[in-house]
TrEMBL record:
The keyword Transmembrane applies. The chain crosses the membrane at residues 34-54, 249-270. SUPFAM superfamilies: P-loop containing nucleoside triphosphate hydrolases. The keyword Repressor does not apply. This is Lipopolysaccharide biosynthesis protein. It comes from Streptomyces iconiensis. Keywords: Membrane, Transmembrane, Transmembrane helix. It comes from the Bacteria. Residues 510-555 are annotated as: Disordered. InterPro entries: Bact_polysacc_biosynth/exp, P-loop_NTPase. Residues 541-555 have a biased composition (Basic and acidic residues).
Amino acid sequence: MSARHGAPAEQPAVAPVYDEPDLLRDQFRQLLRYRLLILLGLVLGLLGGGWLAVRGGDSYTAATETTVQLLTTDSPGEEKARGEISMGSERRTALSSVVASRAAKELKSRTDPAKLAADLQVTNPPETQMLRFAYTAAGPRAAADGANAFARAYLDSRQGEALERIERMVAAYEKQRKPLVKERDRLADEIAGAGDKGALDGTVSAHASLVSSIAEINSRISNLQAQDTTPGRVVTRATPPATPSGPGLGLMLGLGAAVGIGLGLLAAWVRLVFDPAVRTPGDVVRALHAPVLGALPRTRRGGQGSLLAEGRLAEEYRSVAFRLAYDGTFAHRRRVLVVSPRGSIETALACSVNLSASFAEMGKDVLLIEADLRTPSLTDQLRQADGVQPGWARAPGHGTIGWPAGHRVPIDAGESGVFDLVPGRRVSKVPRALTSSAVTQLIAHAEAKDSVLVVLAPAVLSYADAIALIDRVDCVLIVCDPRDVRRDDLARVRELVAGAGGAVLGALLHSQGSGTHDTKRAPTPPSPPSHRNSRPAPGPARDHSETVGLRVIDR
């Protein structure tokens, strides 16, 4: 019966709200799942760091430091104050092709000057008028010679430019002085040849003026020729270095490892963004908008065991059953539909059986309905349990299409107690059987006091059988492996359940081996006796501390 016909059910628990630190921790844990990508990035980083360390180990760097002296005369008649030298311009001059050509001639190298300059670094220490020439070469002697050669080439180039400028200025003054000297000599001859000195006052005055101008020009030429053209001096001369210039193998390996891990984490993050699979319980919560009620522990594969769980696995099922019992929505309806999103339902089958046993342990009147009418498997396991035929196999009264059976089968759950089972049966018209009035009457079992109904159905996304039952069962428990299901699958399951009028109570997670191999089906017993109704010979009382398999109690 649907919740629409009864009292309004409480809303299911919503997904918890994660704060930013929790989300970051959850994402970091998800990144660690892609250990292969992180390890690959680490290996690549180590290889790159080792290659750079080996490559840097074959190079040596030597440095020469020089001071830069200010030349007082930069243009005719103009002087610059001390301290106005532009170190940026001087640094560019030191890196120019002119200086590189001079250094190549000094080194007597046939290498292209541009290639030589590529191995040179010129820096200006802060608040100084110094240039530092650092040259890198394959050998220590070549590095020292290169640094010294570039420093000398720079100083020689600067001094040569100063001398050329002075020569140009001197030539300009001499050119300016030449006509003055010629005119002075003419006036001097004129004064010497004249008899009347009084008539030559103007000529004498002009001659004196020319002599003064020539003297001024001569003074400027003398000042230019006396100027100090020293461009600077070498403060520290480069010597062959004793060790390579590389940062060292250890440091490069450390840097390579750090960069590699960063690249690996970046690749893992990209892989995580585009990975549609559910990786963590947080992903399940966000996709279903319902809490994770439990996670089945991983146990070792192999071995035959009981469908009823033991040990840690049994305690996890009990914990889930208690959480359901105290859930407001389930407590009002006392019905739960156990399904998986897609694929095999073996884990969902084991979950339904163990939840039924756990509810029976609480003193509830439990009815388990195997609504898998396509590939029912619980029937075969009951037949094989202790060699006793179930009561439904002998009793008539099936539905008009063969299911559900008219009688319930009492199942001994060991120390947990007894619960009833309506096993599945192959029928030709599954949709009609699931929507029959007989199924409605069975589902109404949960309306009795202290009763619980557990329904097992095929995967939601494989068949619509579970959808046909949701409007009457209402409460749904999703059983899934977070590594084998996609976020889109869980979101679609939630939409289908909500569209059918039901509510997802939560999810039960399991890992590989938890459902299929941790809760094994009972081993195949020997062939039953020839008489189907014959009973086994009485034997000693059984110790129920360990449940060997499901046993049918003959009432």
